[in-house]
Design a protein that fits this description.
19 helices; two-stranded antiparallel sheet; Ammonium transporter fold; 1% strand; 469 residues
Amino acid sequence: MSETIIAPLPSGLLPDEASPEWLNKGDNAWQLTAAALVGLQSVPGLVILYGSMVKKKWAVNSAFMALYAFAAVLICWVTWAHQLSFGDKPMGIMGKPNLGAVTPKYLLEQQYDKMIPKADYVFYQFVFAAITVILLGGSLLGRMNFYAWMIFVPLWLTFSYTVGAYTIWDKGFLSKHIIDFSGGYVIHLSSGVAGFTAAYWVGPRHVNDRDHFPPNNIIHMMAGAGFLWMGWSGFNGGSPLAANEITSLAVLNTHLCTATSMLVWMIFDSIFFAQSSVVGAVQGMMTGLVCITPAAGIVDSWAAMLMGVLAGSIPWYTMMVLHKKITFLKQVDDTLGVLHTHAVAGLLGGLSAGIFAKPNLVKLFYNSNIYKQGPGLLYSIINTNEEVHVHDGFKQMGYQIVGAMFIAAWNIVVTSLVCIFVSRLVDLKMHEDDLEIGDDAVHGEEAYALWGDGQRHPPTIFRRIATRV
């Protein structure tokens, strides 16, 4: 008979000290997994998506903007931005920085009433902050000076994103009232409005790029979109900070809404343009993911699918119809249409959360002894429960509207100020000659080697080829 061998504990630890009593290893494992999934949405997800969704000459620059932002946000987040967003001591509309928050003593403490360490929460919120900045960058591809982008990222994170996170998710004036399950306002409305605002200040792409800007690799674009879609399981599934029933519902609702939205977008493309576009399908996928985000774990699955119908139709209309009719929208060069895929879809999701939030699910997710979210307007009208009144539903919708107005206004003002400040240091936009050349002028590198093993022919040969053509 074989003997069971028990591995010894690390030196100095007694059996009950191997892990603290408050730590739930299942919750901890899921939270780390969810954070990793969200991180994969940015690196490699958005790196691949941006690098392949733009014109070939901008593939390197677009992918590199995403990669740089991910690294820069991590350093800023751990050093000061997390405390500004979720600091223990309030300081007006943001938290107070605390240098002790980067020490092991702090990071290994319990995250309030959750059964995970603070280090889990810091990393999970970092990948949220990083993807917000990268999504914003989608409005600026193909012309923003890379050095301006390097300065813009930490400034915008510090003065814009942290305020939205603190106001809605931590101790701000909306935190006990507004419903934003996983960032429809904090992340998507914020990135959409800020991206469009920054695009206004940076200015448009080269005229040839704006008139003709085909994706350089459709298959890679779909691969990047796939990382986004599947990574959203962690995006919404990680918000409860536990592996519980709300987590499961949030993941299922996320995929239901996304699939519905993509199919609806494809149907509209087929009806009005006589063909279904792959780029359009990716846009519809994105609007579905964004729309369900503020409500993923607190609505029924039928409501998630209905939100998918709204997500696949309303942003389609604003992008494909309104954008071409309104002069101001046409003048601002929003490269990937982030205003529509994130700001419009995020606003739509936030308002839908105020309508479809189910009272018992809201109580499960929010601590009803502290927070006062819900019920959704629909349930306040049809519910016969004496504790639920119609005016409560209208009050909740009021908070959803006020929250959207605050996030939009704050991002317009702060993003404008950041852009103006950066413009005093370096040019926001690349020089016209660089805009015509692209990656080779900006980074000295090109995405694809068309001749030989990466070497480039002398300029004289290029001129001969051009002459023959």
